[in-house]
Structures are given as structure tokens and as C-alpha cells.
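TASK: fixed-backbone design
INPUT:
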């Protein structure tokens, strides 16, 4: 049985297979509408979510399966003091696969140790968000057609941004990828990610504070919000939340084929005036998330292989 806790749980070839399957689903969704018939996905969200939870539920329903679960810790037995281990032991009796989000880093790993069905990490604290990374990779592939040779700008909250940490780990395994890390000093990429991923892997990167200066060289700009829920001091949040705001004026500095991604939700870090720019890919990114999660569910449940082989 395979779980997905960290994007590094997947080899490059496994990532490529998931993206290829997602492409097949996009091309012929009707061919996959009954693949998960009589299968159940449990969505256990101990932390609020809109896109990720609904994306998982939409993915399973689109595969012909069923969904159960909860959308906040207060509506589960966690409010009574039940441990993650016990919750998982119970819920895995009711379903075939679990997507779990938790504010504590490492909680999905604990769940995987106790579960009798595959666990998908749908985000744990500031640590990992592997299915968002698969979504990001599918979007980059569909928008630009490649991963190798790209210059990727990551802007905003690089300290607490789990989507940033996962994406850097994934893209670092492709050839000639360069990162431009754009953040205020207080929200720089953690030392662990710099040393253990970028420097150990010999990956080219630079750290800057100016978005305008970085724009002309980027192939991908990955915007993130400053996350209020990760701050212990509200004064620090208020001081840093408007550090970077992407506007049409800044977009004018970028390449014609540059793409803007964002894991969402946004607050005000991307002006709504940018939404109509064809380079703004973040709402297309949302739809890609459903397709890539459909592919991942199929892979973890080993479903659809015979049907694909017969084509």
C-alpha cells in the first residue's frame, strides 16, 4: 500500500505518470467516469479549506465514487480529545482512501502509520502540500510544455508557505531549473530548504527583495499570500501582508509567455486587474487540481490500469 505524504515519496517517473494520466482524463473524462464505482474517499480536514477539500470531493465524484468526512476539527471527535491515530483507525474502517489536512506538521505521517487504507496529505502546517505541487506541475506542463530550463520566481511568504517548499523539492529534480526567491527578510525560505534541497542539489538560485527587478527573467511567477494563521504576532502580519502586490504595471515588465500561478486563496497580493491577462493561469490551475487528484486517486487505488492497457 502506498501513501502520499511528501512529494518526494514519488519518483520523477511516478510524477510523470500521474501527469500523463491527468492529461488522458482531461482529453476523455467520460472514459474515467465509473472507475471508482463503489469506492469511498474520506476527507478529514482538521483545518479550513475550500479548494483542496472540494477538489478532492469533485475528483472522487467525477470518478464515480462516493465521499464522506468532515470539514473542520470542531465537527469531529477531535473536539472531544480523540487522537489522530484513533481517528484514522476508525475512519479507515469506513472508506478506501483518505485525504487529510491538519495544522500540525507530521500529522499525516502519523496517520499513515496507523491507517489500513492509503493516506494523501492534503497539507500539514507549514510543511508539505504534495497534491498542490502536482497541480502546479500539471499547470506548468500544460501552459509551457516543459520543466527543464525554466526560471521560476517564488514570491511572498517563503518561510511558512508549504506549497513553496513542496514545489521547490519537486522542480529541483528536473534539469537546469533556476529559482528566484522573492521575499522580505522575515519571510525568507527556511535554511533547511536552501541547504538540503537547493545547495545540496547544486540548484541555481538567488534571493532578492524586489519583484520588479526579477520580473523580466521569469518564466513562471508563483505568488503566495502572507498567511495570517501562521503568525503569532498580528503586528508582524499587518506589517508584512502587503509586501508584494502584482499589478498590470508589473506584468508589463514580464515576458510575453510568462505564467502566473497562485495556490489560492489570494487576499490582495494579485490585483483583480491581472485576472484578464492571458498569462494569469491561477484559475486554470484550480481546474487542473481536480484532474491531477483524479489521477492520483486512481494510482493509489491501482484502478483503471486494465482499461488503459486495452486502448
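OUTPUT:
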Amino acid at each position: 500500500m502506498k501513501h502520499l505524504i511528501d512529494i518526494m515519496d514519488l519518483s520523477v517517473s511516478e510524477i510523470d505518470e500521474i501527469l500523463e494520466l491527468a492529461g488522458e482524463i482531461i482529453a476523455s473524462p467520460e472514459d474515467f467516469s465509473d472507475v471508482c464505482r463503489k469506492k469511498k474517499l474520506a476527507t478529514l480536514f482538521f483545518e479550513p479549506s475550500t479548494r483542496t477539500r472540494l477538489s478532492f470531493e469533485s475528483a472522487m465524484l467525477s470518478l464515480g465514487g462516493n465521499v464522506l468526512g468532515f470539514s473542520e476539527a470542531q465537527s469531529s471527535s477531535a473536539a472531544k480529545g480523540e487522537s489522530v491515530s484513533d481517528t484514522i483507525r476508525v475512519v479507515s474502517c469506513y472508506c478506501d482512501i483518505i485525504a487529510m489536512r491538519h495544522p500540525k506538521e507530521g500529522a499525516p505521517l502519523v496517520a499513515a502509520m496507523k491507517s489500513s487504507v492509503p493516506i494523501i496529505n492534503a497539507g500539514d502546517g507549514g510543511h508539505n502540500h504534495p497534491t498542490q505541487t502536482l497541480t502546479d506541475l500539471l499547470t506548468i506542463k500544460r501552459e509551457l510544455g516543459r520543466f527543464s530550463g525554466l526560471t521560476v520566481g517564488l514570491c511572498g511568504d517563503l518561510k511558512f508557505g508549504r506549497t513553496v517548499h513542496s514545489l521547490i523539492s519537486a522542480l529541483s529534480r528536473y534539469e537546469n531549473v533556476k529559482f528566484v526567491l522573492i521575499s522580505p527578510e522575515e519571510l525568507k525560505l527556511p535554511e533547511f530548504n536552501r541547504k538540503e534541497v537547493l545547495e545540496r542539489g547544486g540548484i541555481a538560485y538567488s534571493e532578492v527583495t524586489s519583484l520588479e527587478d526579477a520580473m523580466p527573467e521569469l518564466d513562471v511567477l508563483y505568488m503566495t499570500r502572507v498567511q495570517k494563521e501562521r503568525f503569532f504576532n498580528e503586528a508582524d502580519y499587518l506589517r508584512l501582508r502587503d509586501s508584494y502586490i502584482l499589478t498590470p504595471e508589473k506584468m508589463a515588465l514580464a515576458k510575453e509567455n510568462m505564467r502566473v500561478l497562485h495556490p489560492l486563496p489570494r487576499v490582495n497580493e494579485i490585483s483583480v486587474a491581472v485576472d484578464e491577462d492571458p498569462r494569469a493561469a491561477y484559475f486554470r490551475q484550480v481546474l487542473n487540481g481536480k484532474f491531477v487528484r483524479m489521477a492520483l486517486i486512481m494510482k493509489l487505488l491501482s484502478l483503471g490500469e486494465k482499461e488503459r492497457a486495452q486502448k
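COMMENT: Strands lie at 40-45, 66-70, 97-102, 119-124, 151-155, 178-182, 204-208, 220-223, 259-261.
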